[in-house]
Amino acid sequence: MLRLMGLDYGSVTVGVAVSDPLFVTAQGIKTIRRKHENKLRQTLAEIEALIEEYDVSVLVLGYPKNLDNSVGIRAEKTEEFADMLRRRTGLEVVLWDERLTTVSAHRYLNESGMDYRKKSEIVDTVAASIILQSYMDYLNNNPDMKKKLEEYCVGGKNGGQQ
Questions:
Q1: Which of 31, 113, 127, 140 is the most buried (most CB within 10 A)?
Q2: CATH 3.40.190.10 fits 3-156, yes or no
Q3: Which residues of the chain are under the pLDDT cut of 70?
Q4: Under 8 Å CB-to-CB from 149, ≥6 apart: which residues?
């Protein structure tokens, strides 16, 4: 069975989460860190390895629009990253509104009573889980969209055009 992968793209980190095969729950799996914002080769290679390991069919990339729904610099960088992912993986990349997911992740981790250092290590992974879970909740509440996605996944990666 195929899965979805959620990504929370930041200036020096990418939080990663995957769905269960039925697209019901999201599980955070890791945060990929890099030393420099524009050094993405290793980050993309790690994402490709995780796509292979988890048999991912679609990427759901958090899209950080401004609160007024405008597109700022961070969203433009995310669009560029989405294009890189499409070129390198051949997979569909869904840009999914992520406004306030990092805030939600911090709130969730604060309520857990977790140590500050540990929270800073996993907040991006939790944010990726929230992004992916939000997308899956949308699919589960919109049967036509879920059916289209399932048909895409059954057709194989790249819609069956390998």
A1: 127
A2: no
A3: 1, 99-121, 155-162
A4: 23, 58, 139
